[in-house]
């Protein structure tokens, strides 16, 4: 099978980038012919605001470039991860015209929320989910705290919703959890065109569940309010734990994390680690904390923890509640509730004999749901379905 993977990289590396590479590599290793097409947001610095706006709506250069590449490659499948802003929806047309079945992974909520994360001023916001034109987002400056940037994004979304671009040229969408699918259905997506396929860990850390680990917790991720970083720091100081909290990542709250680490002996900041170092930190933690305050579309750090037999304590919110089974492979606490988080931490660390059971269950969850082999089977099934649907609709 000829498979083209397309992705627009962000300036800050994230889970979407990793999934793009993991899935394309997985298909190549499975014997399929793979082509990758990428753009990078670092290109934006050389563009004028007018050029950025134009390319966000409809990038003619990408349309022409992909049409030429697809003519040579002759894809059976074109799988898009992120198209915003430089690849743009024009790429769907190029993919459709090539005769391929077109797939779009829904890694974030961009198509139903201009800022992509269903949050406003630190709180969950679903104001624009059902709107064709998300006007509230513009006066709230939801995207990059800019009315102009938000207006461009909102206009692009409205234009393509009105033109039914996705309905015409995308054969199948991939939501990462049942919760995520529900949100897109609320936003007007056809539930019959959405498959649910969770992400996977390509190179898990091998860890013996009977290995004694130091008494510590870890947080790995972008250091911002949405991820619950400020909440976590406050909860840790309020709880007065003797448990060490290891934090790794980068973001706007980096200085606050560094300050907390210098003021509090049981908070350690490791800076931005590479992927291998991150997995090693997780594998040596007793538990991983995922205190997100918004609807995580997935939560790759959760399954990375499970792959290393590390249980997870997470917010009972959105997709995280789909991934973590309470008192089985981890615990769930009420989002943004310091008291509940600290109660769960006390309960978790008070029973050391239970740790081995949690570790064993976490590893079992990983092997039953999140391995490369299971993901390959699921993704090929979605591809076959999309190809069949493309033939029916032609």
CATH superfamily of the largest domain: Glycogen Phosphorylase B
Q: In angstroms, what is the radius of gyration?
A: 21 Å
Mean of pLDDT = 94
| Pattern of helices and strands | EHEHHEHEEEHHHEHEEHEHEHEHEHEHHH
Instruction: Provide the domain count.
Output: 2
* CATH topology call of the largest domain: Rossmann fold
Q: Characterize the main sheet.
A: 6 strands, parallel
- Subunit arrangement of the protein: single chain
Q: Given the C-alpha coordinates, what overall shape results?
A: globular
Name the CATH class of the largest domain: Alpha Beta
So how many helices?
Answer: 16
Which parts are unreliable, with pLDDT below 50 for 5 consecutive residues or more? none
Read across the widest sheet, the strand sequence of neighbours is 2-1-3-4-7-8
Q: What class, by secondary structure content?
A: alpha/beta
How widely separated are the two ends? 20 Å
Helical amount: 40-55%
CATH architecture of the largest domain: 3-Layer(aba) Sandwich
What percent strand?
A: 15-25%
């Amino acid at each position: 099978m000829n498979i083209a993977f397309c992705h627009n990289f962000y300036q800050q590396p994230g889970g979407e980038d990793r999934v793009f590479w993991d899935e394309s590599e997985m298909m190549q290793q499975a014997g399929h012919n793979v082509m990758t097409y990428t753009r990078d947001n670092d290109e934006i610095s050389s563009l004028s605001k007018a050029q950025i706006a134009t390319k966000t709506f409809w990038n003619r250069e990408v349309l022409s470039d992909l049409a030429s590449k697809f003519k040579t490659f002759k894809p059976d499948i074109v799988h898009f991860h992120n198209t915003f802003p430089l690849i743009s929806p024009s790429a769907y047309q190029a993919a459709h015209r090539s005769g391929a079945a077109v797939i779009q992974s829904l890694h974030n909520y961009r198509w139903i929320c201009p800022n992509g994360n269903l949050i406003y001023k630190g709180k969950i916001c679903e104001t624009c989910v059902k709107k064709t034109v998300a006007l509230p987002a513009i006066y709230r400056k939801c995207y990059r705290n800019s009315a102009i940037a938000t207006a461009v994004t909102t206009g692009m979304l409205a234009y393509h919703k009105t033109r039914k671009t996705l309905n015409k040229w995308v054969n199948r969408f991939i939501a990462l959890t049942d919760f995520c699918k529900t949100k897109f259905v609320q936003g007007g997506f056809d539930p019959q065109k959405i498959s649910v396929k969770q992400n996977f860990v390509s190179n898990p850390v091998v860890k013996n569940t009977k290995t004694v680990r130091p008494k510590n917790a870890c947080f790995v991720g972008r250091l911002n309010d949405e991820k619950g970083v400020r909440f976590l720091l406050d909860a840790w100081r309020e709880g007065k734990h003797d448990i060490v909290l290891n934090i790794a990542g980068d973001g706007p709250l980096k200085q606050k994390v560094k300050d907390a680490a210098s003021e509090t002996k049981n908070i350690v900041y490791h800076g931005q680690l590479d992927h291998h170092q991150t997995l090693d930190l997780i594998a040596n933690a007793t538990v991983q904390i995922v205190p997100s305050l918004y609807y995580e579309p997935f939560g790759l750090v959760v399954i990375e923890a499970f792959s290393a037999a590390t249980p997870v304590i997470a917010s009972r919110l959105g997709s995280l509640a789909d991934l973590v089974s309470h008192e089985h492979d981890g615990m769930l606490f009420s989002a943004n509730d310091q008291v509940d988080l600290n109660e769960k931490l006390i309960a978790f660390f008070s029973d050391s004999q239970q740790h081995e059971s949690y570790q064993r269950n976490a590893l079992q969850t990983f092997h039953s749901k999140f391995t490369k082999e299971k993901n390959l089977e699921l993704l090929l099934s979605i591809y076959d379905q999309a190809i069949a649907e493309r033939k029916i609709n032609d």
